[in-house]
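Before relying on records like the one below, remember that each one covers exactly one chain. Contacts with other chains, cofactors or solvent are not represented anywhere in the record.
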Amino acid sequence: NWQRLLMSHSASRSTQQRHGGLILAPRLAGRRPVRAHTYAAAQTKPAGLVSFENANFPMDQDKRTYHVGTKRGEVANRILSVGDVTRAALCASFMEPPPGMSEVYSYKSKRGFVTHTGLFDGVPISVVSTGMGYPNMDFVVRECRAVTDGELAFVRVGTCGAIQAPPGKLGSVVVASKGSVLVRRNPDAYDDPTVGKYFVSKPALPDAKLSALLESEMRSALNGDESEVVSAMNASADSFYSSQGRTGDDFDDANENLLDEIILKRQPEVVSLEMETFHLLDLARNSRELSVHAASCAIVLAERRSNDFLPADRIEFMERTCCRAALSTLAKASVRDVDGKEAYGDACVWA
């Protein structure tokens, strides 16, 4: 496996330049290049030989976290969470390199999480590709919290389906200002017909000030069009299929009436449906001394009733616009953070 990795890495050198363990990521058209510190390049021995300590909260010998892979000094107090690595790279292209560096700092863990840290309007911000689902959000929030001092401001920019359109029309942004509920499939129901097949929680609420700032920045970025930014409640499901009411012939999900008879009947203000926001807000409200502040928004890619999907060119425009607005939100957010050099010494990548 290690030999194949080295061969693959050598083959990629025609499109990437290697410099002392760093790989310069290819330049996105018209955007700033991002320097990528890949897990493979950063290691001095095969990944399978890396040692970890503390089964309760594993870290390797370099004090990198088990999943996200970052260590103290690599994650700023303002964090933008996005779903995929392409969107994370887009966000990074809008940031300036830290002092003394020619590119935005970037690190990719062996589990595929990518963290970019740079400056936006002179403020240190980290962008983390979270992937999908609330277990991944759990990794990101807990492991970023573990390697940072001071307060954290988390903003999520995701994508969603709208189950009420209007107001959640295609291409609009739903800000979860009224919180998010959790929708979870109940496995016990398939052996016990007396219990419900799906559970819907009470809402977890965002940080009110951060959410209001996020909504304001989104409206400003979209020229103040009221129909483009929707303030509403979100629902986060534990599955893309069963718990979001997607039906099929291969599995007995018993979800044909999930959207209307279960979700909207219990929480009629829900407009958007995705898989991560609830856990972000839930962790923030349960953080010690409320040291994590969180807000979330999602671009409506699909209308679940009509099955319409947003065209690709509009998706690109909305991702660019919303990512910049989210970075601006974080740069303006009031957070009791720390002096990077004082807290992390020479390990700090932005000071």
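The two ends are 37 Å apart (CA to CA).
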